[in-house]
Fold:
Amino acid sequence: MQRYTTIAIVLHWLLAVLIIGAFVMGLVMTDIPGLTPTKLKYYSWHKWAGVTVLGLAALRLLWRLANRPPAYADSMPAWQRGAAHGLHWLLYVLMFAVPLSGYFYSLASNIPVVYFGIVELPVLIGPDPELKTILKSLHYWLNMLLAGLVGLHVLAALKHQFVDRDGVMARMLPRIVPTSRFPQESK
Structure:
């Protein structure tokens, strides 16, 4: 079975780690009471992760548009192919929507986003308390949707690995993982 390109694999796993890390950090930082140095540090790290996700998502999308992904397993029913295709595109949309909603939430809160404490991102909107409230809620719910879809994506990969045993998961595993342990689709 054909594999994804090395660049697609690296971007996939790098984005996965960053998205999960930013999500967990978002949950942790919002549970810290008051305004502490630790909370401020976590907010900065969360924003830096979000900006990085946005940049890498743009690279990943460009790579995906220029490089056709491997075909799905022949044994995969048409409805599963359609669902997988739709889920992947929803994940792409959310990889842009989540960080952008956080960015605009920061701006509406009158808090600039300074990438790694060095590069101040453009201020595209001014402070707006009403928009701040809307964007805070939007950012939260987009994150929850992304978390749910990532969970669904993981469950589908595990289903293909351990139930269908069709080698679909092995297409996205880094080469350091021995794929001989992952059955390939029989021809």
